[in-house]
Specification:
There is one protein chain. This protein folds into two domains: 105 residues, no CATH class; 53 residues. Helix content is 40%, strand content 29%. It contains four helices and nine strands. It has a six-stranded antiparallel sheet. The chain has a three-stranded antiparallel sheet with strand order 2-1-9, with no helix packed on it. Helix 3 packs antiparallel against helix 4. It starts with a helix and ends with a strand. The model has no long low-confidence stretch (mean pLDDT 79).
Length: 181
C-alpha cells in the first residue's frame, strides 16, 4: 500500500513537471513593476535582428525556453502564391532570442476587446449617422463616400492613439527579463 501510494505521488509530480509552463517575467528594477507573459498571451516586441537591425513583431507567444521565445505558429505563413504577390513579405512566425529584445508591451484581452468595441461603436454610429445625413440633406453620393472615408480614417487614428499596441517599455529603462518555470 505504501509503495503504491509512493509510486502515485512520484507519477503525479512527474506529470506536473511535464505540463508546467514557463513564463517570461519583465521586472523594472527602479519601480519594482512586474509584467508576466505566459504562453497564449499576445506580446508586442521590438528586437535586434541580423546586423542589429530593429524588427517589430506582435503575435501570440507559443513557446518560452530559457534563451528564446516563439511568437506565432509556423502555419501562420501565407501560401506561396501570396508570398510571390507581396514583395515585402514579413513572416508572422518568429523565434526571438531573449537577449535581443529592446522594447516590449503585453497586449491584454481587455485592450483587444476595447479596440474592437471602439471600432464597432464608431462604425455603427458612422453608418447610421451617414444614412440620416443622406436622407435629410442634399448630399451627393461622392460627398457621402468621402465623408465615410474621412470618418473611417479618423477612427483608425483614434484607435491608434487611445489603445496603442507599439512596444512602450524599453529594456534600457531598467527592465530585466527572466524566465520562470
Amino acid at each position: 500500500m505504501k509503495k503504491t501510494l509512493l509510486n502515485v505521488i512520484i507519477i503525479l509530480l512527474f506529470c506536473s513537471q511535464i505540463f508546467a509552463q514557463k513564463s517570461l517575467i519583465f521586472l523594472n528594477t527602479k519601480t519594482n513593476e512586474t509584467i508576466e507573459v505566459s504562453v497564449g498571451q499576445t506580446l508586442s516586441i521590438k528586437f535586434k535582428g541580423y546586423n542589429n537591425q530593429l524588427f517589430y513583431v506582435k503575435n501570440i507567444v507559443t513557446e518560452i525556453s530559457d534563451s528564446n521565445i516563439v511568437l506565432g505558429h509556423e502555419a501562420d505563413e501565407p501560401p506561396v502564391w501570396a508570398q510571390k504577390l507581396s514583395k515585402k513579405f514579413e513572416p508572422n512566425y518568429r523565434v526571438v532570442d531573449i537577449k535581443d529584445i529592446v522594447a516590449f508591451r503585453r497586449i491584454t484581452a481587455g485592450r483587444t476587446l476595447g479596440k474592437s468595441f471602439l471600432s464597432s461603436t464608431i462604425m455603427l454610429g458612422t453608418f447610421f449617422g451617414t444614412i440620416d445625413l443622406f436622407r435629410n440633406t442634399q448630399l451627393e453620393t461622392w460627398q457621402t463616400v468621402f465623408l465615410s472615408l474621412g470618418i473611417g480614417m479618423a477612427t483608425s487614428v483614434i484607435n491608434a492613439f487611445v489603445l496603442p499596441e507599439n512596444p512602450k517599455n524599453k529594456i534600457s529603462d531598467n527592465w530585466v527579463i527572466t524566465v520562470r518555470n
